[in-house]
Amino acid sequence: MTLLLSRSHEDSMSGLSAVVTGGSRGLGLLLAEQLLIRGCAVTIAARDEEELGRARQFLTESRPDARVRTAPCDVTDRATVASLMTHAAEAQGGIDVVIANAGIIQVAPVESIGVDEFRSAMETMYMGAVHTSLEALPWLRRGRGDGRLALIGSVGGLLAVPHLLPYSCAKSAVAALAEGLHTELRGRGVSVTAVHPGLMRTGSHLAAEFGGNVGAEFAWFSALAGSPVVSMDARRAADRIVTAVERRRARIVLTPMAKAAGLTHGVAPALTTRLSALAARALPRPPEGSDAAGLHPGRDIEPGPDRSGHPVAARLRDWGSALNDRAARRLNQRAHHAHGGG
């Protein structure tokens, strides 16, 4: 069904050139897939070259004639992003579509993180989006028709999510950037789409980093991110995002829960904040006497019961993250977590 929906829009993007940062795994990989289905030539960028190689294999397995380039790139380095855009334009005859998707996820109570985690989140997601946007705009303006730029935010950028504070702060900045660019560039040759997904089954729990009560934090995050009740199939999400970019929509919010949360926060922010505070009380507390001792990659705590020491949390993880674990195997989430990789 998703494939049919994608192909119904294929003609309007056929022959265009696209760049996806954070395109080697998870949502970024599926965004690249949807662009290929619509007939685009696609450059996927991320930091890990081995991961990029596996991503290219994934994208060309069922479509050997697909025009896919890979480009190692750290979006926190503007010069590297500038080189990415220049080489993509040279190889593909210009750039028509750019999706800024690179990101990191840090899951921990504020007591277990420090200023470095906030800085890392802002440099990767916000400054990464700034670098991508500013370096892409000159190419998008001179493309074959009006260019399209999309910035991947999050429901966490519409309201602060407990135990995801650096992520929420960075995504909030991305939301403001997308809205401001849309306002200033409207009618000037580039459409800008702000994308705010809710939870999706991308296997991101293995690439995320966890602090505090690590096993329990991993349990609740992987359980919610994999639950069909509150999360969304990632391929369906990617189809809807690329369709929104194709149709030049200013904003798209995915999942009913994300839409409800964003609407409620906009209408009654004080109420939403109180409800978030109640939710925070149900989340794991850091161990007594612990401090900001660093974060641990989800791939290292995936075995749950053996590593976490919390059998109840492990059972919760096993119940809720089965779909997410399968998504991780499909969507190239096995490699070492790297900032700027998406």
UniProtKB/TrEMBL annotation:
Transmembrane segments: none annotated. Residues 284-312 are annotated as: Disordered. Belongs to the short-chain dehydrogenases/reductases (SDR) family. Residues 297-309 have a biased composition (Basic and acidic residues). SMART domains: PKS_KR. Keywords: Oxidoreductase. It holds the Pfam family adh_short. It comes from Streptomyces lannensis. This is Ketoreductase domain-containing protein. Residues 16-198 form the Ketoreductase domain. PANTHER family: DEHYDROGENASE/REDUCTASE SDR FAMILY MEMBER 7B, DEHYDROGENASE_REDUCTASE SDR FAMILY MEMBER 7B.
